[in-house]
Amino acid sequence: MVEHHSAAQTVRYSHPVVLLGALYASFGSLVQNPPLMLLQLLPVTIAVQIAHVATCLGSSSSNNGKVSKEGGKKKPGRPAATKGKAELGANVLSALLSLVLAAVMGTPVMFTVMVLLGAPITTHLAHTALCAAHLSILAGMPLIYSYDVQGAKWRDIFSLKMPVDEEYGGALGACLGAWLGAVPIPLDWDREWQKWPVTIIAGMYAGYAVGRLGGLALAGRVARFN
């Protein structure tokens, strides 16, 4: 399956470039009308995330507990091309389910966290909700795809004891980038791009890209912050 491996590597390393490119191309509109642009950018992010997890994380998911009922044995007489298409279809289906879980469960959680950290609560609700949705899709969807609802894995994730990989590195990078992105907002520079949540989104996407690439470089090490 050399062709599949080559395609996966292409998607893996072009994925952050595509996400940052989409953000850069829409940044002017994001500053002018954040809710509208965030809504228009969300399907692009979703499509890129689905392509990434279905293509690049399909094989790694089996190492995290997703083992087939056949125990990894080949079915006799089944063509490799047919098997590859069936596997990709199953990966896409799993990616869609992970997307739904991340959106439905992750967005309210991220929204609440943002409000607790200082996001407007009486105004800009659409801004905050869409910002939370973007963070859930970027950070949460790959983790849900790889680890399902395994309690032990999620305890390690939230306690920062998880070995670093591209999914976990991307999630950490997105959260840290969003947090750092809030720094310019209260400064009295009177710039249009300082309004909520433009810098949060920029930091989130940049942090996710850096975190993913860092996770690939540091794969296997444990991220300990305590």
From TrEMBL:
- Where does the protein end up? Endoplasmic reticulum membrane
Key words, A-Z: Endoplasmic reticulum, GPI-anchor biosynthesis, Membrane, Transmembrane, Transmembrane helix
Chain segments annotated as transmembrane: 12-31, 37-59, 92-119, 125-147, 168-187, 199-219
- Give GO cellular component annotations, separated by semicolons: endoplasmic reticulum membrane
Membrane topology, from the record: Multi-pass membrane protein
Gene Ontology BP term (one)? GPI anchor biosynthetic process
Which residue ranges does the record annotate as region Disordered? 59-82
- Pfam families according to UniProt: PIG-F
Could you tell me which pathway this protein works in? Glycolipid biosynthesis; glycosylphosphatidylinositol-anchor biosynthesis
Protein name per its UniProtKB record: Glycosylphosphatidylinositol anchor biosynthesis protein 11
Q: Which organism is it from?
A: Drechslerella stenobrocha 248
